[in-house]
Amino acid sequence: MVLAPGSAPGGTDRHATRRFDEWRDTIRHDFVALDIAADRRLGTFAGTVRNATVAHLQVSEVCSVDQVCRRTPSLAAADDQEFLQIGMVTRGTGVLEQDGRRAALAGGDFAIYETGRPFRWRLGGDWCLEVFTWPRASVGLDAGESARATALRMDGREGLSGIVGGMLRGLLAAPPRLTAAGAARVADETGDLVTTLAVEHLAGPLAVDRPQQALLREMLTYVDAHLADPGLGPAAVARAHFVSVRQLHRLFATTGETVNRRIRRLRLEHCRRELADRRRAGDPVTDVARRWGFPDLATFSRAFRGAYGVSPTTYRARHLGG
């Protein structure tokens, strides 16, 4: 995959080919491994890919002829990296399938999908697809929200989805020349907008919360507010809300994420953002870790590398130009 945490902002590359075997290799290199089948009735084949990076966000334009692209269960299972992607159709048609849903997209429409699970694109006509890719760990959707948000058609021209769509199109049309820290903030803030869009899209019209839903929301708010406490864990959250640990786990199961996994993910995300913030460049990595509930530097470093692929020190150096 072209994208990597800490990629230099603004760099652009383009690849064009008329060979189908070369096309499959290009897609595998620039994105993830896919099983691709082109329409054999076509006399000629052609495809182009253009990529740029804004820190850990990769923005791409992919154009070709009729074909089906599948991320099979075996291909997804064999890949140790997971990404969240948005696919926006700008020419031709596209049908995205994932998590039991099917989204039919035309010009300006887009949908969210994840590479860690099987998906299928059916792309028709002389098509172009704009693809926006974040490392999965950098996006705030929990597993349950993601499983309900994929393969849903979103209108890139109206409402909140229109605002997000316009921002995404602008990033590809003219990738901004930014400092590494500025690029990281743009990538994060765009990812936050995508998260907000997905959650709002799922929520639909406001309704009265059932008691258990209200309790879960209180628990999630409590976790967010106490991330700096090294003692935060299932027992502490359950105790603060006068429920059993078993009941706590049962409620969190509806989010698709365990209590400990949510705490760890949010702590790492706060640390990642601070390490890319030039205003905190003088803070030792140990202080950043402790500020967000990691009292042991070795444990923090292992967790950070597992989530983002590099050590905290390397990540900071890449983003702050050290």
Could you provide a short overview of the structure?
This protein has helices at residues 20-30, 73-78, 143-149, 159-173, 180-203, 211-225, 234-240, 245-252, 259-275, 285-291, 297-308, 312-320; strands at 12-17, 35-38, 47-54, 57-64, 67-71, 83-98, 101-105, 109-114, 119-135, 154-155. It has 322 residues and is α+β, with helices and mostly antiparallel strands. Strands 1, 2, 3, 4, 5, 6, 7, 8, 9 and 10 form a ten-stranded antiparallel beta sheet that branches.
What does this entry look like structurally?
It is a single chain. With 322 residues, the protein is α+β, with helices and mostly antiparallel strands. Helices cover 43% and strands 24% of the residues. The chain is built from twelve helices and ten strands. It has helices at residues 20-30, 73-78, 143-149, 159-173, 180-203, 211-225, 234-240, 245-252, 259-275, 285-291, 297-308, 312-320, and strands at 12-17, 35-38, 47-54, 57-64, 67-71, 83-98, 101-105, 109-114, 119-135, 154-155. Strands 1, 2, 3, 4, 5, 6, 7, 8, 9 and 10 form a ten-stranded antiparallel sheet that branches. Helix 4 runs antiparallel to helix 5 (180-203), helix 7 (234-240) packs across helix 8 (245-252) and helix 9 (259-275) packs across helix 11. GO terms for molecular function: DNA-binding transcription factor activity; sequence-specific DNA binding. Keywords: DNA-binding, Transcription, Transcription regulation. Residues 217-318 form the HTH araC/xylS-type domain.
